[in-house]
Amino acid sequence: MDRKEDARSKKIIFVSSCLLNTNNKVLGLARYPGMCKEVFDTLHKYGLGINQMQCPETLYLGIKRWWATKNLYDNHGFRSFCRELAEQAVTYMEEYERAGYETVGVLSCDGSPTCGVDITSWDDRWGASPVDLSYNDAIVEGSGVYIEELKKAIQARGLKMPPFYGLALDDESVDMNQILSDYEAFIKSICE
Questions:
Q1: CATH number at residue 182
Q2: Nearest 5°: phi and psi at 119?
Q3: Is residue 2 part of a domain?
Q4: 171 contacts 109 by C-beta, under 8 angstroms
Q5: Would you say 186 and 165 are in contact if contact means Cβ atoms under 8 Å apart?
Q6: Which residue in 97, 105, 163, 181 is deepest, having the highest Cβ count within 10 Å?
C-alpha cells in the first residue's frame, strides 16, 4: 500500500459548535441533549470529515448569557472577535485546499444572531434591562454576525465559497423530520 494514500475522503464540512455540543447554546433553546445525532449520522453516511467551528457567543459572554438578538451583537467589539475566529476557520480551509482537500460546506444553526445562515434575529426592543420577549417574534431573514465575517474572510483569501446551510433547530414549531429530510438532501447534493 502506498503510504501517501489511505481511506480519507478529503472532504470536510465546517460545523457550528452547538450542533456538536448543545451545551454551548443559550439556556432555553436546546432541542436535543448533547448533539443532534441524526445530523452527524448523515455526515458519517457521506464520508465527510468535521471541522468544529468555535462558538463566538460562549467564548465572548459565557454559558450563562442572556438571550440576545443580532442587533445586540452587531457592534465593533463582537464583530472584531467574530472576525478573529473566522480567520482561524479560514486558515483551516486554506490548508485543506493546499493539500488537495475540499471544503464541501458550512453547516450552522439558522435563527442564531451569530451563526444564522438565512435566518437570524433582530428586535430593537431588545436591550437595556432584560425583559420577557418572545425570541420567535424576533426571527428575520439574514445572516448572523459570525457567518457574515466568515464569508468575508473566505472572499478575502480568494478561496472558493462553499455552500452554507442553516438547520432551523431552534424553532420547535418546525417539524424535526422535515428539517432532517431537507438537510440530508442538501448533504447529498454537495457530495455528488
A1: 3.40.50
A2: -130, 135
A3: no
A4: no
A5: yes
A6: 105
Task: Give CA–CA dist 153/109, Å, rounded.
Answer: 19
Query: What is the domain extent for residue 135?
Result: 11-191
CA end-to-end distance (rounded Å), the chain: 27
C-alpha cell of residue 119: 435566518
**Rounded CA gap, 189 and 192, in Å?**
6
Q: How far apart are CA 33 and CA 17, in angstroms?
A: 14
Q: Is residue 177 part of a domain?
A: yes
How far apart are alpha carbons 130 and 132 in whole angstroms?
A: 7
Which residues have a Cβ under 8 Å from the Cβ of 65 and sit 6 or more positions away?
A: 26, 57, 58
Is 163 within the bounds of a domain? yes
Among the listed residues 164, 155, 61, 184, the one whose alpha carbon sits nearest the alpha carbon of residue 119: 164
Identify whether 170 is part of a domain: yes
pLDDT mean values, one per 10 residues, the chain (192 residues) = 80 95 84 85 96 96 91 96 98 97 96 94 82 77 96 98 91 83 95 87
Rounded Cα–Cα distance for residues 161 and 108 (Å): 15
**How would DSSP label each residue in 156-179?**
HTT-----EEEE-TT-TTS-HHHH
